[in-house]
């Protein structure tokens, strides 16, 4: 009984080493937004082969702030027509992407981190009107 108490106390006092907090990723893509531009925040979750929501509509001349969260594994987000727009994020380590929507049209976004066999169909659409 004495040894069991000591063992239990040792287990209660032992804690795994703390993991350093991962910094939230913030990436600005495309051109800069003018001062005072309206902001639209959009929550986007990524999970096995899909974004939710997969279709987004935003007004022209708006700073779109994508709040990205992975729910199952590491994923990526990029707007296909914007060079160097890829940002990767993991569960528990969300990312923010800011994009100034100064051109009307439809823009495809996709996962830019290989996430499995269905990776190629992990896409969405941003409509700027």
Backbone CA Rg: 20 Å
Shape: globular
Number of strands: 10
Sheet with most strands: strand arrangement: 1-8-5-2-3
How would you name the CATH homologous superfamily? Cupredoxins -  blue copper proteins
Biggest β-sheet: count, sense, barrel?
5 strands, mixed
Oligomeric assembly: single chain
Low-confidence stretches: 3-21
Number of domains: 1
Question: How large a portion of the residues is in β-strands, by DSSP E?
Answer: 35-45%
The CATH architecture would be Sandwich
Q: Tally the helices: what do you get?
A: 1
The end-to-end span amounts to: 73 Å
Q: What is the CATH top level name? A: Mainly Beta
In round numbers, the mean pLDDT is 86
Describe the structure.
With 129 residues, the protein is mostly beta strands. It has a single domain, classed as Immunoglobulin-like. Helix content is 9%, strand content 44%. It has a 5-stranded mixed beta sheet, with no helix packed on it. The termini are far apart.
What is the topology?
Blueprint: H1 2-13, E1 25-29, E2 39-47, E3 50-52, E4 55-58, E5 62-70, E6 75-79, E7 87-89, E8 95-101, E9 105-110, E10 123-128
Parallel strand pairs: 1-8, 2-5, 4-10
Antiparallel strand pairs: 2-3, 5-8, 6-7, 6-9, 9-10
